[in-house]
Structure formats: structure tokens, C-alpha cells
Amino acid sequence: MSAIFPPTSARPAPASDAIEFKRVKAIFVGSVGNLVEWYDFYCYAAFSLYFSAAFFPSGDPVAQSMSTAAIFALGFFVRPIGGLLFGYIGDRHGRRLALMASVLLMCGGSLLIACSPTYASAGVWAPAILLIARLLQGLSLGGEYGSSATYLSEMATSRHRGFYSSFQYVTLIGGQLTALVVLLVLQNYVLDTAELKAWGWRIPFFIGALLAVVALIMRSDLPETQAFTAQRKQGRDRMGGFRLLLQHPRECLIVIGLTMGGTLAFYVYTTYMQKFLKLSVGLTDAQTTAVSAASLVFAALLQPVYGALSDRIGRKPLLLGFAVLGTLFTVPLLTALRHAQGPYEAFGLIACAWLIVSGYTSINAVVKAELFPASIRATGVGVPYAIAVSVFGGSAEYIALWFKQQGMESGFYWYASAVIACSLLVYLLMRDTRRHSRIDAET
């Protein structure tokens, strides 16, 4: 039987060292599983420059990138379904089961990509199989976010919830960083460009499937959260489901509004940035990978710092800081980056961008979890978030490439600024969830 932790706040005395160690271990395991899921998902973006021609033959590299970006976006559009499905599992049957099921599905999607035939051998079936695999991964990731955000937020103590919850984005970024490290190793030490395009792009997906099995084993031993256990004692028939979610329309709209600007900014400086550095800035493949990897390391280091800061000053000041600076400086930063002279200048500009974007990424998970009661928390976090990410995050790369193809690349910069400005209005009107946390109210 899984261990159950005592309430995460309102205790008369600090938790014992043994309980605190188990708590940190559970948060670590949950975070590692999150890293594996995002590694699997981001391998597609990291290696798309090499496998796009295998599925979409064309002499135009921008057109090939747009085709792979379109499938990348479609993988996002099923995320709300994944959020609803795995949110229901998490709210009705436990956070641990939802986390295990999501990583298992991700394993299947990665394995399918690794074994997919190319256009030369299967014709139109090749991109169709690729699409099916991405849809499976999209379903998995749609459930992963809500489940892991809920789990980490409920496991953390009230005083350090922002700090511990920030590790969701540490591992999320770490997943993409791991994908880039694998790419860097294959590029420089194992395979040449021709081999990577011919068959080497399959290697990271095989690695991802194997890592997902390891994460599944680790998650099988996770303890359940006190918040879920206490709510289940009141009756499972009052937990989870779309009908219960509809009873919280204000919270759902807040999640969509606070997510739209942040998720667009996040995908601009992660998945799209690799193509931007190569196609627009003009860096080499190796320089593009090195700059992307270095900027992600910098971003990962910022997350717990900002998360800990939110435990002291609140969540709202960080969100406002991101939105104000993002609205004002997205166009200047991307314009300067477009004309960057070499990899070092490019890294410096991206690092400046991460100083802004981390105000959102570090705490967005905990803010959403603190909005909902335990009975609908995994679904409430996952579904509206997935809707916003599908519309604004998953489409970011495709829209950016479309603007570039039309000869209006700077138009995308203004589009990103406008979306961030819309989130600013939400931040101004919402309450600070650190001071009005539903998690603390329940415990």
C-alpha cells in the first residue's frame, strides 16, 4: 500500500526528517518522470531538421519545416482530450495512476516514431504514421501536465510550494535540453550529417521509449498525496469529470488567460528558436544546437530561483513582471536576435529573454493548482491549460514560419507581444494564489 503524507500545511510542528526526505524523494521521482515525457516529446522538434525530408520530400527547407511543424501543432490539438482523460483518472483514481498511464502512452508514441517507415518506402502512409504517433504523444502530454502539476503542488509544503513546483519546468526544460544533448553528441561524435538524415534520427526515439519504461517503474512506487486521499474519503462519486469541471468556469477562464501569453513566449524561445537560429540568424547546425542547449541550461537554473521568490513575495508580482516586460521587449529582443553577429551574441539575447519569461514558467503550474479544489484539480489544471497551449503554444512555430515564408517575419514578433499583453490583463484582475490557495484552504 502506498504511503500517505500528513497535510502539507497547518501542522503544529515541522515534519520529521524522515517524512521530509520521503516528500523530497517523491517530488524528485515525479519530476524525473516529467523530464522523460518532455524529452520524448521534444525529440521531434530537436531532430525535425534531419528527418523532415524522410517524410516530406521537397527541395524547400522552409516548406519541409512547415510540414513537420504542422504535425507538431496537431499533436498539441489533442492535448485537451488527454487533459480530460488523464485528469479524470487523476481526480477519480489517484495522481499516481494518471502519471503512470501518461508515461506509458508516451513510450508507445516514441517507439512508433522510431520504427516509422519513410516516404520513399511507404508513400503517404509515412506521414500518416508519424501523425498517429504524435497524436499519441499529444494525448500523453496533455495528461502529464495536469497530473504532475497537481502532484508536485500537493506534495510540497505551503512555505515552499513555489520552489518545489518550479521543478516541473526545470524538468520540462531539462527534457528538451536532454534531447539537444543527444543531438549534440550524435552530431559531433557519432554520426555525420548524411547518416543522421538517413537513419540516425531514429536513435533518440528508441532512447526515449526505453527511458519511459524506466520512468514507469519509478512512478509505480510513488506515494499518493494527502489532498487526494482526504477528498476520496468524502466520496469518489464527487470527484473528476467534465461536468464537475463546468462548475468552475471562472477558474478555467483564468487558466486559459494566464497561459496564452506565457506558453507562446515559452515555445518561441524553445522549439521555434532552434529553427529561428538556423533559418533566420544563419548559425550552423552545431552553433544552433550549442546556443539552444546553453540557453536552456540558463533557463533551468532560473526556475527554482523565481519559484522561491514567489514563496516570499507572492505569485502575482512575478506574473506581472513577465507580462509587462514581455509586452515591451519581445519585439526589440527578437529583432536584435535576428541580426545577431554570431552565437555568443545570440545566447546573450536569449538569456535576457529567459530572465523575463521565467516569471511565468517558474510558477504557472502552482498558480493553476492553487485555483481548484482537490476533487477537480488535475482536470482543472490540465484541460484549460491544454486548450491554451494547443491554440497559442503548439501553433507558435507554424505561425512564425508562415510569417517568414510571406516575407513578414517581424509580424510574428508583434503577434507574440499582443498575446502576452492579453495575459497581462488577466494578471491584473486575478488574485494572488499564494494568499488565496485552495490547497491551503483544504488542509
TrEMBL record:
It comes from Pelomonas aquatica. This is MFS transporter. GO terms for molecular function: symporter activity. Keywords: Cell membrane, Membrane, Symport, Transmembrane, Transmembrane helix, Transport. It comes from the Bacteria. Residues 26-434 form the Major facilitator superfamily (MFS) profile domain. GO terms for cellular component: plasma membrane. The lineage of its organism: Bacteria, Pseudomonadati, Pseudomonadota, Betaproteobacteria, Burkholderiales. The keyword Magnesium does not apply.
